[in-house]
Fold Helix-turn-helix motif protein.
Amino acid sequence: MDIKPIKTDADYRAALKEIDSLMMAGAYTPEGEKLDVLVTLLEAYEAKHFYLDFA
């Protein structure tokens, strides 16, 4: 998977799948860096599309 912005539900699902495959990646490895970037993109997408009100 190429790293790109998550704009659609299909992008979101693909990112989740890729993150799942990278969960055991070591820190400071290429896979670990990819995991870090994907999680950041995923969090941004979720913050915009899955608003949760804890009040």
Notes: The mean pLDDT is 92.
